[in-house]
Amino acid sequence: MASDDQEGPGVDPKNVVVSVLKACQLMESFTRERPNLTLADLTAATGMNKTTVHRLAATLIQAGWLTRGEGATYRLTMRPFRVGAVALAELSLRSEAVPFLRGLADRFGDTAYLMIPGPDGAVCVDIFQGNNPVRVNTVGVGTVLPYHTAAGPVVMLAFSAELRERWLARTLDQYTSHTLVDAATLEERLEKIARDGYAISEEDYLYGVGAVAAPVFDAQGELAATLSLGGVNDGFRGSRLLEIIEGVTSSARELSSRLGH
């Protein structure tokens, strides 16, 4: 079972109740596609023996989290959904993104960005600056970037058919000699980004600036935002670039998980 608590390794093992972890694992076996599961299904899904699964299920029924379904199956009650609704009501994309933004900035020393789709471009809603003495000060909170330039915005085009259709219907402005303004060429790039799961920007919005971005998805699987790291273009080369790609994409996946994806 994957934990969405980034501080898990720091927890004293003596304070961990293993049976609760197993109960959580059992609860996570239920999906939209498989809302009703038999004892055998739960045993296969969790890897636990039948006796343990049976005792956990009985306890969860007593607690009101599971109930008996038809045909000797188990299913979730509404209680997990009520608890989930509380979490969703309080959920803030920015607050959830903070540890990931800070982690990227601290790890690589460059500037980490959180961007969301807006009507006229990608909107920067939060940034964390690393310790690199050379910083990109042109982009700050509230900056709106055109969708066909920079790493974060082009990721949005790659993963949103609606944005792509609307944006590519207009005349694309040129910001540097590296900006793609031909719709067909840009479409090819967007298809590659969608396949790769990330975008690399090399001076296509600002000279001397490079960046890597990846998509963040919400509980419905829709594009919610992008996480990106930007800095001096020369720093986005070779093995360091590979490390940045890994760092950005893994952070975006974990943030998506926190949003329910």
Automatic annotation (TrEMBL):
What InterPro entries would the database entry show?
Answer: GAF-like_dom_sf, HTH_MetabolicPath_Reg, Tscrpt_reg_IclR_C, Tscrpt_reg_IclR_N, WH-like_DNA-bd_sf, WH_DNA-bd_sf
Q: Please indicate which superkingdom the organism of origin belongs to.
A: Bacteria
What are the entry keywords?
DNA-binding, Transcription, Transcription regulation
One Pfam family, short name: HTH_IclR
What are the residue boundaries of the HTH iclR-type domain, all occurrences included?
A: 17-78
* SUPFAM superfamilies associated with the record: GAF domain-like, Winged helix' DNA-binding domain
Q: Name one GO biological process term.
A: negative regulation of DNA-templated transcription
What GO molecular function terms would the record report? Answer: DNA binding; DNA-binding transcription factor activity
Q: Where is the IclR-ED domain?
A: 79-261
PANTHER family according to UniProt:
HELIX-TURN-HELIX TRANSCRIPTIONAL REGULATOR, ICLR FAMILY, HTH-TYPE TRANSCRIPTIONAL REPRESSOR ALLR
Provide the protein name: DNA-binding IclR family transcriptional regulator
